[in-house]
């Protein structure tokens, strides 16, 4: 049953009896170590691994009960057999209550009985360890399943968030609403310390604070930095420490307290709309998952900005003549309706 001979520790202060027991057990194929007292047995249990401990109840320096307790505390799978004289059965019963598997009365009258007890005890010990190994394997498999389920849940959450973001882009022309959802989704899915969106002002050629989670909103809305096309690339960029960051971006740290972050530009048809940033407390929190998500959300954000731009252009074309720039009939109708509404509100004739 064992690949190697089972290891047995004999704790017995009577040298003749101890050596006799060692010899007969070695003849049965076991690997046997001796301890001349309880203290020595406890020391051996601290440094070596045993399958079975056979200990006398009464020994100097430490009793068999103390050896039993220490063995069970060290490794609960270790089996213990107590040896006791006829007059100490009560102590043997106490040892069984504390976890000993069996007891043997001294002096031995039937060595075959001793061998049977030893074999039965070692078989039980082997079964216990095999069961524990199976339990450990089951625990590991459950952990693997939990990791897989966690990954599936993360994928589901990401897909759902992207779906709702895409739906919002297609169902509303309210750019502010879509961008708020964009920044909030990044914060919920990638667990950064802060998420923020800087939009690009074409006239001033700078980026300004638009939406954020985890920042002082009033302070962020006043934040502006000039555009530097070296770091507005088509792919997300990781900045894990400020030795890598262009000097212009050090203001993120100085004014907004951002240390480790990744960002992705919102670009479409060579038009820069802004950058999306996810900031983290430590660089270990940043993985390829966060990288890929940021890229997808930045792409959706660029689509939303493009849609808003096209809608604004359509509105302008609907009220102005494309060739002359003059206001058309719809413009005057809208102005008339506005004036009628104002007159009605103030009871003007």
Automatic annotation (TrEMBL):
* Record keywords: Coiled coil, DNA-binding, Phosphoprotein, Transcription, Transcription regulation, Two-component regulatory system
The keyword DNA-binding appears for this protein: yes
InterPro entries (alphabetical): CheY-like_superfamily (IPR011006), GAF-like_dom_sf (IPR029016), Rev_trsase/Diguanyl_cyclase (IPR043128), Sig_transdc_resp-reg_receiver (IPR001789), WalR-like (IPR039420)
> Hey, what's the signal peptide range on this chain?
none
Q: Look up the coiled coil feature and give its residue ranges.
A: 124-155
Q: Some GO term, biological process aspect, for this entry: which one?
A: regulation of DNA-templated transcription
GO cellular component, alphabetical, reads: cytosol; protein-DNA complex
Q: Which Gene3D superfamilies match?
A: 3.30.450.40, 3.30.70.270, 3.40.50.2300
Where is each Response regulatory domain found? Answer: 7-121
Q: Is DNA-binding among the key words of this record?
A: yes
Molecular function per GO:
phosphorelay response regulator activity; transcription cis-regulatory region binding
Pfam families this protein is in? Response_reg (PF00072)
Where are residues bearing 4-aspartylphosphate located in the sequence? 56
- Designated name of the protein: Response regulatory domain-containing protein
Source organism per UniProt = Candidatus Schekmanbacteria bacterium RBG_13_48_7
């Amino acid at each position: 049953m064992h690949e190697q001979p089972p290891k047995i520790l004999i704790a017995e202060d009577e040298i003749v009896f101890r050596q006799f027991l060692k010899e007969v057990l070695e003849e049965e194929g076991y690997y046997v170590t001796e301890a001349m007292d309880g203290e020595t047995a406890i020391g051996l249990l601290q440094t070596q691994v045993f399958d079975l401990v056979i200990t006398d109840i009464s020994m100097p320096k430490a009793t068999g009960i103390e050896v039993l307790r220490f063995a069970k505390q060290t490794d609960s799978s270790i089996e213990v057999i107590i040896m006791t004289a006829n007059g100490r059965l009560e102590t043997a019963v106490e040892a069984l209550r504390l976890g000993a598997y069996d007891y043997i009365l001294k002096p031995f009258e039937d060595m075959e009985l001793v061998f049977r007890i030893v074999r039965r005890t070692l078989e039980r010990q082997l079964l216990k360890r095999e069961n524990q190994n199976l339990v450990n394997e089951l625990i590991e498999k459950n952990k693997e399943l939990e990791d897989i389920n966690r990954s599936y849940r993360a994928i589901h959450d990401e897909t759902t968030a992207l779906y709702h973001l895409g739906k919002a882009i297609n169902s509303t022309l309210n750019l502010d609403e879509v961008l708020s959802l964009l920044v909030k989704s990044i914060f919920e899915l990638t667990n950064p310390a802060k998420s923020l969106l800087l939009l690009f002002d074409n006239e001033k050629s700078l980026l300004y604070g638009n939406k954020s989670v985890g920042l002082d909103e009033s302070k962020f809305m006043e934040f502006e930095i000039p555009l530097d096309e070296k770091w507005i690339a088509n792919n997300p960029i990781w900045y894990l420490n400020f030795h890598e960051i262009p000097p212009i971006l050090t203001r993120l740290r100085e004014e907004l307290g951002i240390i480790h972050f990744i960002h992705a530009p919102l670009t479409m048809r060579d038009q820069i709309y802004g950058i999306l940033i996810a900031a983290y407390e430590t660089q270990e929190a940043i993985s390829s998952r966060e990288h890929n998500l940021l890229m997808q959300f930045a792409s959706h954000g660029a689509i939303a900005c493009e849609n808003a731009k096209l809608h604004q252009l359509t509105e302008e074309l609907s009220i102005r003549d494309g060739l002359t720039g003059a206001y058309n009939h719809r413009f005057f109708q809208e102005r008339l309706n506005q004036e009628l509404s104002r007159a009605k509100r103030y009871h003007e004739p």
